[in-house]
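Colleagues,

Please find the record for the two-part complex below.
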Amino acid sequence: MVRLEKRAEPSRAWSMATPVVAVLATMIAGGLLFAALGKDPVEAIRTIFWEPLFGEFSFYYRPQLVVKGAPLVLIAIGLSLGFKAGIWNIGAEGQYIIGALTGAGVGLAFYPMESVVIFPLMVLAGALGGWAWAMIPAVLKTRFGTNEILVSLMLVYVAEQLLASMSLGLLKNPEGYGFPGSRNLQQYASAHNGDLIAGSGLHWGAAAALIAVIFAYVLLNRHMTGFHIRLTGDAPRAARFAGVSPTRLVLFCMGVSGALAGLAGLFEVSGPAGVVSIDFNVGYGFTAIIVAFLGRLHPVGILLAGALMALTYIGGDIAQSNLGLPSAAIQVFQGMLLFFLLAFDVLTNFRIRLGASEVA
Amino acid sequence: MDLSAINPVQLIAFLMVAATPVLLAAIGELVVEKSGVLNLGVEGMMITGAIAGFAATVESGSPAVGFVAAAFAGALLSCLFVVLTQFALANQVASGLALTLFGLGLSALMGQTYVGVKPPATGKVDIPVLSDLPVVGPILFNHDLMVYFGIALVAATWAVLKYTRAGLILRAVGENHDAAHALGYKVVRIRILAILFGGACAGLGGAYISLIRVPQWTEGMTAGVGWIALALVVFASWKPWRALLGAYLFGGVTVVQLNLQAAGVAIPVEYLAMSPYLITIVVLVILSADKSSAPAALGRIFHASR
């Protein structure tokens, strides 16, 4: 019989190796899935992982990698802080939407005035919007003990309805011939979040994502709050005795993740997306959960995981147009990745022993 | 706006239909949580059940086959959760989320060829005299079988949990898995059965949406019902009959807001559509003060060291 034996300490080697093993396992299982769909598995995997980086049109896809990766990393960094401490903000998608709405709202309020202060104001509004939306589950949790998972998730559906209402009503383009959707912020110079270096895909969102990675790294390794987060996650009782206030930690973690998700929403709406429309959100808030786990809740890991996930998005798009691979197949592929990761993670904390069977 | 167009009898009759999916999923999850496992993958299992049931019904022409297939698909998906949480000892919150994300993708993939297809209608039970009664007839005695099945399932779950040895063991495992293990109960085996039951129920609930409530297939059509089912278990304080009450409350809100939309009330459609979610939050806040009835071992990982 196979038996699990708890390690005295989590294995560092396996902790680093699991994401890699999980990606390889996903490639194999994904290949089988693609084969079942009647596609050449090797070709499909090659298209997803190779084509965007080194293929014929990689000069076009590489900047896209930054565009897709930035919001994922930005959101995942925020989520990872809470996840480390056992605070589950699952509603980043909602905070992302609200951040985009408040940010774009501020920008559109100034239209057609041109000024350098408009974009910074929008950034502030976006972060505040996401923060406020995350404060709802946070305050309900600290004040009434309400489950933050369910509340933050319910608020995603509320935010989606709000987005529909806004793009059909308040923020609708008055010169849009009655079509839903706001004015295009890409055509409004003061509010446009364009490439910092032309053609690189490197917009302010990507810069913010890099800053967030550094900020999170310093916070977790050099700062008391970061220590409290790690302590609460590893030993909640010990943390309580050490004087860590759970209330303050919940407000901090939820607030930061909400603000970062809001920022991601704002950078998306003022840059790559351009308009507030009903189908503005594409699930970055949920994919970021996978990114956070795949990156082992470690800032640098998240950066790598975000790049990998962006690769599957873009590679998936290419596979869709070149091979006719359905877009849902990529969603399944990303889901598998999280499965394999969680499954192989057992090796970090346990040793597998062959021998006497256990009673359970 | 014309509120007189709303027929109260039809309203209550439709309330029972609207409540059935969330009721089925919630009763399954209630059993899972009673065994001490928190499965956040309800939404993913529901949507998988929705497409599996839909596809099986369209292919076979029989809704009965569809519902069986849906239950089977839900249970099959929950096997992944079993592997992660019971064998690989993974975090239950993360595993549940993985299940939901995976289920949403899988259902979209399976459902591609079924968009816009109309499923064969599910027959209603027609009880000779009772169905023809005024008021009471349409409300109570003119539904499809699944509505009654849902209520029967609540009764059965309540009876098994309260009066049988199996129910007692299940609750013991959920309250203190170490003690249950020491008494010689197979903790892992019992939990696996509970999770499979939860998966099957969620699958049935999903199929009810795609086959009867709507009835057609669209991507992501469960729209958070699985999450509301999770909230409902908390609302119910892990008591089956209160889950029924909660489901009818939720069904009532859904039906009323749909009727208000149709009647053209001055409130914008989007704000009416967000009301079920907002009310769920409000109810959660009111009821979350009392956590005493939650199974003590809920969400904790069990690893028998000896």
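The CA atoms of residues 235 and 241 of chain A lie 10 Å apart.

Comments are welcome before we finalize the supplementary table.
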